[in-house]
Amino acid sequence: MTKKAKTAAERDHHERIAKMGCVVCDALDLVQTHRTEVHHLREGQGASQRAPHYIVVPLCKACHTGPMGVHGDQTYMRMAKMDEIDMLAETIRRLME
C-alpha cells in the first residue's frame, strides 16, 4: 500500500501539534531541550502500520526517537506512567484549551 499524501487540514493539524510541548517531558516536569516532533501512534495498529494523520502526539526528539523514547526502549514512557493512549488524551485535552 502506498502512503497517502497529507491533506491541507492534516498538515495544519501537524503544525499545531508540533507547536506544543512534549507530553512526556511535561508529565515528568522536565525542561524540554529538543524541538517537538509529531509522533503517529502505533498502539492498536498492525506491526508496520501507523495511525492516521490525526492520531498524533507531540514528543521531543529524545522522547520520540531517542534510545529511551517511544521508538527506543520506552523508559521515559514508563517513568511518566503513560502509554500512547494517555499521551493522546493529554494532546486532545490541550487542543480543547
Detail the topology: elements first, then pairings.
Layout: H1 8-18, H2 23-27, E1 36-40, E2 56-60, H3 61-65, H4 75-80, H5 84-96
Antiparallel strand pairs: 1-2
Describe this structure in words.
The chain has a single domain, classed as Herpes Virus-1. Helix content is 41%, strand content 10%. It has a two-stranded antiparallel sheet with strand order 1-2. The chain starts with 7 loop residues before the first helix and ends with a helix. The longest helix has 13 residues, at 84-96. It has helices at 8-18, 23-27, 61-65, 75-80, 84-96; strands spanning 36-40, 56-60. The chain is built from five helices and two strands; from the N terminus they run H-H-E-E-H-H-H. The chain is globular and about 35 Å long.
